[in-house]
Amino acid sequence: MSTVATEPSRSEPPAPAPGPARKPRSAAARIASGVAGGAVRVFLVVVALFWLMPTVGLLVSSFRSPTDIATSGWWKVLTAPAQLTAASYESLLQRDEITGALWNTVLITVPATLLTVVIGAMAGYAFAWMEFPGRDWWFVGVVALLVVPVQVALIPLSDLFGTLGIFGDVVGVVLFHVGFGLPFAIFLLRNFFAEIPRELLEAARLDGAGEGRLFATVVLPLAAPALASLGIFQFLWVWNDMLVALVFSDTDSQPLTVALQSQVRQFGGNIEILAPGAFISMVIPLIVFFAFQRQFVAGVMAGAVK
């Protein structure tokens, strides 16, 4: 008796279910996809180069002699790099009114920035986590001060500073900047401190930490990005200010912005002083910004992602 072996039947895999039919892309969708591509990046790079062109021109002009500046454009150095010289900077730094103004700018900007950050941090913590009568109404008053323009206070504070004997002094300029910088500082830091988990603060209090120790060892380290952001904003505002310094400073206390403005007024085309002075006035805030750029971005993005 013979046996016939039969192969097992092989079942075919099931055909995949047909997916939903793709709709044809609209013209707007194709344009949006193209916008996100490389063409727009190239366009933005070109725009950035054009935007940086005046800064590059100022930098190159600050290293050229007055004769070369008067006879040709700054791009001439591309074919004649021998024109570059540091004589303008040497002449600038030998002028007592410029070096004194640069030192006055530091004396005004650094205390105004530090005082605003420290006082704003303490007030912001108080508004966020301390209970006292009228706390919410006081905070509303602080927010309302954000819309008060600087020009409104020039005449009243000039009279007050004259009575106190600090008109025309560095102290008066610093106090003005601190007073007008505090509303924004308190508003910014109060909102940042309010995002700190209450459980973290309660745990520190249970460990025996008082308000001062809690503020110094727990709150401030957590608020480092916000403090850096506030410090950069305040530093840039005070360093580049000319209106307040023009009103409240005199010849001995004027900052660099006022000193350069007086050079324009007295000498007109005094480019060998104006070009290097303007570049120094611009490059120092850039150095400060790039030094704290990471903290600044972290402070701006704080609370954006939960």
Quick synopsis:
The chain is mostly helical and 306 residues long.
Helix content: 55-70%
Cα(first) to Cα(last) distance is 79 Å
| Rg value | 31 Å
Q: What portion of the residues fall into strands of 2 or more residues?
A: under 5%
Please report the first level of CATH classification, the CATH class of the domain at 90-301: Mainly Alpha
Shape from CA axes? globular
Flag low-confidence runs. Answer: none
Tally of contiguous helical segments: 15
CATH architecture of the domain at 90-301: Orthogonal Bundle
**Biggest sheet character:** none
Structural class determined from secondary elements? mainly alpha
Order of helices and strands: HHHHHHHHHHHHHHH
| CATH topology (fold) name of the domain at 90-301 | MetI-like fold
CATH superfamily of the domain at 90-301: MetI-like
Mean pLDDT: 80
Give the total of beta strands: 0
Would you write up a description of this structure?
The chain is mostly helical and 306 residues long. The chain has a domain at 90-301: MetI-like (MetI-like fold, Orthogonal Bundle). 69% of the residues lie in helices and 0% in strands. The protein contains 15 helices and no strands. Helix 5 runs antiparallel to helix 13 (256-267). The chain is globular and about 70 Å long. The mean pLDDT is 80.
